[in-house]
């Protein structure tokens, strides 16, 4: 108890010292306005404020970032590696802007973290997906370095890296529920029942021309590789799935065996797919084939196509306008 009392006081002192040290940056953060932006054509300036770093993550890549929905100064960072040959440990850190010099929470994991998602109503809960195919729930209220529950080989873990996890509304019995997607072609619903993660396969993606002729006339089933998914903002059961083959599937939680629709969207992997927060028919997709496309889900061809001259790694809608989106490309733009 004594240590707890001291540690809280020490934490507040550390924050105060940091805020004094970085006072000019804190002022910039609040008030910085570059007058010369007026005279630049389409080119803004970027002012780097804080650099968040931690010794133990030196050799790892940042694979996931997410702001906490309730505590506006708090964000989570996932560390791992995209290189198949350089797989090792991963880390999950939470930083606050009140103390840029040291993380607020530190979790280490056996496998690299690939994706994470904060629960909207219970912001102390995080769903995390790993390179080895496992998923886990971390609880920030429990001061342990381990996740409060994790999938196991027996309980239906993925066979490939988990590329995205997303919380859903609690199920009928008020159990926590989230979805995950992986290269193994499965979209899995995970429900937390009595501190155990129970899995249900929502959909298995199959590649085009699903069965291949193997040796001695064997029929081989080839799986599609899922890369990203997004749930509709209003229609609870409707979701989109992007795949490595460039297709986008429109699916429903109600039918696990078939798709509602298939879009021949891209020539290469779909890196991100996302519904528009304002316009309920519209979604956006981006791909390694250099394009960003905007779709109406009732029409098979895209409404807009943007060619960005480089593989597009991610795209996101603006939270305040239905017509604005941001994209990021592999060449660092």
TrEMBL record:
It holds the Pfam family WD40. It comes from the Eukaryota. WD repeats lie at residues 263-296. It is found in: Cytoplasm, Cytoskeleton, Cilium axoneme. GO terms for molecular function: dynein heavy chain binding; dynein light chain binding. GO terms for cellular component: microtubule; outer dynein arm. SMART domains: WD40. Keywords: Cell projection, Cytoplasm, Cytoskeleton, Dynein, Microtubule, Motor protein, Repeat, WD repeat. InterPro entries: Dynein_IC, WD40/YVTN_repeat-like_dom_sf, WD40_repeat_dom_sf, WD40_rpt. One of its GO terms (biological process) is cilium movement. Belongs to the dynein intermediate chain family. This is Dynein intermediate chain 1, axonemal.
């Amino acid at each position: 108890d004594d240590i707890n009392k001291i540690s809280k006081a020490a934490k507040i002192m550390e924050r105060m010292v940091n805020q004094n040290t970085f006072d000019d940056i804190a002022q910039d953060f609040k008030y910085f306005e570059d007058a010369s932006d007026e005279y630049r054509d389409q080119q803004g300036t970027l002012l780097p404020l804080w650099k968040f770093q931690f010794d133990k993550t030196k050799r790892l890549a940042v694979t996931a970032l997410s702001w906490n929905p309730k505590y506006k100064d708090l964000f989570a960072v996932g560390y791992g590696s995209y290189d198949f040959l350089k797989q090792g440990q991963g880390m999950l850190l939470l930083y606050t802007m009140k103390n840029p010099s040291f993380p607020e929470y530190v979790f280490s994991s056996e496998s690299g973290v690939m994706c994470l998602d904060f629960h909207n109503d219970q912001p102390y809960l995080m769903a995390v997906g790993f390179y080895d195919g496992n998923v886990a729930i971390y609880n920030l209220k429990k001061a342990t370095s381990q996740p409060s529950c994790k999938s196991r080989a027996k309980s239906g873990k993925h066979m490939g890296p988990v590329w995205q996890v997303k919380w859903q509304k609690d199920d009928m019995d008020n159990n926590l529920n989230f979805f995950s997607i992986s290269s193994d072609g499965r979209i899995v619903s995970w429900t937390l029942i009595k501190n155990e993660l129970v899995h249900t396969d929502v959909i298995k993606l199959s590649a085009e021309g699903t069965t291949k002729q193997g040796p001695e006339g064997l029929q081989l089933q080839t799986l599609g590789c899922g890369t990203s998914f997004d749930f509709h903002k209003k229609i609870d059961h409707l979701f989109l799935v992007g795949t490595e083959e460039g297709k986008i599937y429109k699916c429903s939680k109600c039918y696990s065996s078939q798709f509602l629709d298939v879009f021949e969207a891209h020539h290469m992997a779909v890196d991100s797919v996302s519904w528009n927060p304002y316009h309920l028919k519209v979604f956006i997709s981006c791909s390694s084939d250099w394009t960003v496309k905007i779709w109406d889900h009732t029409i098979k061809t895209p409404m807009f196509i943007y060619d960005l001259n480089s593989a597009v790694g991610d795209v996101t809608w603006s939270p305040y306008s239905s017509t604005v989106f941001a994209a990021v490309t592999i060449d660092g733009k």
